[in-house]
Write the structure tokens for this entry.
Amino acid sequence: MAARRGAARRAGSARPGAGRGAAGADPALRASAALEPCPSGPPTGPPGATGTCLADGRPADLAAMVGGRTTLVNVWATWCQPCRTELPALQEYSRRPGAVPVVGVQVQSDEDDGLALLRELGVRYPNVHDPDNRIRAALNVPAVLPMSYVVTASGEVRRVDPPVAFESADEVRTAVQRTAGGAG
């Protein structure tokens, strides 16, 4: 039932060609968002998947952010209403003991708008802005958002299937465990 609700909520959430903001977010907005820094480790994951860390504005490589750990990667945009519902559930999940690390990827929307939304929703886990769609292309993200992937410790990318917009941390945990084969 939750999968059908998620699919129904996704209807119409794709917005091809949505505007992208100019590089460089407002420093005060970046500071007020209080995001966790983008992690870095030995690169494992999709090569060439780079963007801008929303916490500090520095270049971020998704493969290094995953760093040999099973990680949940969530792709979202500010204009996507189901994303706005899902982000707080992902935040709650990220704080639970035993949760795999969560990394957000903001696409097709202005960096400042993304920082403002994350601040408003109280989302603090690491996020990267993907203005050039490099991460989106490396993950082969379809036109519908939100979309989540589990990247295994060995770098294998697995799409959470069926794709749903999570409403609770329990839904996130169940999907991660199912997709990762037990972790999370």
Observations:
- The longest helix spans residues 81-94.
